[in-house]
Automatic annotation (TrEMBL):
Residues 2-258 form the OBG-type G domain. ATPase that binds to both the 70S ribosome and the 50S ribosomal subunit in a nucleotide-independent manner. It comes from the Bacteria. Gene3D superfamilies: 3.10.20.30, P-loop containing nucleotide triphosphate hydrolases, TGS-like domain. This is Ribosome-binding ATPase YchF. One of its GO terms (molecular function) is ATP hydrolysis activity. Belongs to the TRAFAC class OBG-HflX-like GTPase superfamily. OBG GTPase family. YchF/OLA1 subfamily. Keywords: ATP-binding, Magnesium, Metal-binding, Nucleotide-binding. One of its GO terms (cellular component) is cytoplasm. ATP binds at N11, V12, G13, K14, S15, T16.
Length: 365
């Protein structure tokens, strides 16, 4: 299951957003720093209108959407890499997630005090990015020392390659750039992955805007080098306050309320779409009488590995896959109709799963 960590300075709306996304009140959202100590975890079903249509055709007994795990992590402050605030405890929680959603504040509210006594989303991002970089500098520094001491003067090709990668990452961090800004070979990626660096994780910025959206301080005009992050600033604008209000309504009431505000997509929908794009994910589907279900994989995943998401034994046993587009599946009435429509594709082991594919995997027993 995809795990996304929600991070940000204290009082920027992290916990309010988390509660709205997960339709819960498990995260304490109060007007003081560190009201979140231990991370709150919520699992959210990914809305997918395709599932209901497939299930109706297949007369499925169950419908199972894919899901995302959101983790609300305690607010970060300047000096966290040196132990300030919740320091290393905060940073260790970030290491465990697949991607980071960084909430920066663009709303004004005299009743909610900003820890820096100002509203500046760009500076919010810079503070957090610097702390992540400083934490990774410590990690790389220790690893370099250990590796060089362990070599004891006898540097073989493997150790030499590791030292070169560590110094490559160090060069990036020392000039205030994320480790992810570097380009790595496949061998180098394997070395970097084992370091569990914070600055290698994909980052999406959520700009928490005023309800009226009249005083938005957007990151749109901010260049990536100013935020010290990779090649692009991926961000979306969400009003956590509006999302919290929507979470209290019925689905029909929520649709009407959003329509009145002129908002086309909920914050959850926007976040999921942006998250899937950021991580380059696609969803394939399976459908039959027992169940209709959504499965999430990385773009470019081949048939055997996609089947392995359903059950690991399917990877070795994979023979072929019956595949069609989900719209064709609905139009022609399921598998029986697809087989006579000319729309069925028989895919081998080199088949790369596409978003919206309906698959039936043939597995050797």
């Amino acid at each position: 299951m995809l795990s996304i960590g929600i991070v940000g300075l204290p009082n920027v709306g992290k916990s309010t957003l988390f509660n709205a996304l997960t339709r819960s009140k498990q995260a304490d959202a109060q007007n003081y720093p560190f009201c979140t100590i231990e991370p709150n975890v919520g699992v959210v079903e990914v809305p997918d209108e395709r599932l209901a249509q497939l299930a109706e055709v297949s007369k499925s007994k169950k419908v199972i959407p894919t899901a995302i795990q959101f983790v609300d992590i305690a607010g970060l402050v300047k000096g966290a890499s040196e132990g300030a605030g919740l320091g290393n405890k905060f940073l260790s929680h970030i290491r465990e997630v697949d991607a980071i959603v960084q909430v920066v504040r663009a709303f004004s509210d005299s009743n909610v005090v900003h820890v820096q006594n100002r509203v500046d989303p760009k500076e919010d991002a810079e503070i957090i990015n610097l702390e992540l970089i400083l934490a990774d500098l410590q990690t790389i520094g220790k690893k370099l020392d250990t590796t060089k001491k362990g070599a004891k003067g006898k540097v073989d090709d493997k150790i030499k390659a590791e030292i070169e990668v560590l110094e490559k990452v160090l060069d990036s961090l020392q000039v205030g750039k994320f480790a992810s800004a570097q380009v790595y070979s496949d061998d180098e990626v394997a070395i970097v992955r084992d370091l569990h660096l914070l600055t290698m994780k994909p980052v999406l910025y959520v700009v928490n805007v005023d309800e009226s959206q009249k005083s938005i301080k957007s990151l749109k005009s901010v260049k990536s080098d100013e935020l010290n992050f990779g090649d692009a600033v991926e961000h979306i604008e969400i009003s956590a306050k509006v999302e919290a209000e929507v979470a209290e309504l019925s689905p029909e009431e929520a649709r009407q309320y959003l329509k009145e505000l002129g908002i086309e997509k909920t914050g959850l929908d926007k976040l999921i779409l942006a998250g899937y794009k950021l991580l380059d994910l696609v969803t394939f589907l399976t459908s039959g009488e027992p169940e209709t279900r959504a499965w999430t994989v990385k773009r470019g995943t081949k048939g055997p590995e996609a089947a392995g998401v359903i059950h690991t034994d399917f990877i070795k046993g994979y023979i072929k896959a019956d595949v069609c587009d989900w719209q064709d599946f609905v139009q022609f009435g399921g598998w029986s109709g697809i087989k006579t429509s000319g729309k069925l594709r028989l895919e081998g082991k080199e088949y790369e799963v596409r978003d919206g594919d309906v698959c039936y995997f043939h597995i050797a027993t």
